[in-house]
Amino acid sequence: MREEPPELAGPTPSRARIYDYFLGGTENYAIDREFAEEADRVFPAMRQLCRDHRRFSRAVVRHLADSGFDQFLELGSGLPTVDHVHAVAARSVADPRVVYVDRVPETVEHAARLVADEPGVAVECADATDVAAVLASPGVTALIDLDRPVAVLAVALLHSSTDDVARATVQGYRRALAPGSVIALSHPTGLAHPGLRAWCDIRHSGYSYAPLLRDPDDMASWFEGMELIGPGWVSAPEWTPDGPAPGAEVTGSGLWGVVARVP
Questions:
Q1: Would you say the C-alpha torsion 223, 228, 234, 235 has a positive or negative sign?
Q2: Model's pTM, two decimal places?
């Protein structure tokens, strides 16, 4: 684990570094670990939720790279550690091009240091819900050919957006992407996971997670005009491209996952 001078840690924990800690990474500081351990005592499932989001992302990227995708755009990316997109993609396709997007400048600076020596990888500071700004960012214009299929990952992202903003975001990327492009999303649900519903109202050291919980009926309109890949809406950590998978109401994972193609 990293030990850091106080001026680098900041006065509050970082979501990206907490996520890294829960994934078993090393790009986190004492203040993040303290918060994470406090949260873990109140809601032990948080660690598993983070790992299940990453399990979904890993399965999707592996499948798409195996299918020939070599362009990836990860929204709300946090820190590219522990089965990060460019490492997973590189196992299946030569020279993948990956752009990570996050809106927190501190996180972007940290992430940029981590990938500074990685060819074909960029990190951009932008609000993922501002589709035009993301697609016009230097990293995207330099690395991503929008005339070819792109895989867009919105993993653990839109639970902090209103319904209107979330729908406009997904539909905005759908309209901007070339046919054959893919949008993958994971999202928390309280279905069969009452602990997650209770967690929304708990504050820790003045810091609140408070996700919006949604189910497929709440999100179906976001994917209008797209074709669902594989099993459709399923429990995110169980997503597979090859056949049926149980829903979140069966597994109690607390997460939905879906992958959709631009026709």
A1: negative
A2: 0.92
Q: What's the structural domain count of the chain? A: 1
pLDDT in tens, 133-151: 999 999 999 999 999 999 9
Tell me the CATH number at 152: 3.40.50.150
The residue range of the domain holding 93 is: 44-261
Would you state the structure tokens that stand for residue 203, as one six-digit string? Answer: 């504050």
- Tell me the mean pLDDT in the region 86-99: 97
Of the candidates 54, 45, 48, the residue with the CA atom closest to the CA atom of residue 78: 54
Backbone angles phi, psi at 123, to 5 degrees: -125, 130
Cα distances from 225 to residues 56, 171, 174, 260, in angstroms, run 23, 9, 8, 10
Alpha carbon distance 225, 261 (integer Å): 9
**Beta strands per DSSP E along the chain:** 71-75, 97-102, 121-125, 151-155, 182-188, 203-204, 207-208, 227-228, 234-235, 255-261
Report the sign of the C-alpha dihedral through residues 134, 181, 69, 243, in that order.
positive
Q: CA-CA distance, 101 to 191, in Å (whole number)?
A: 29
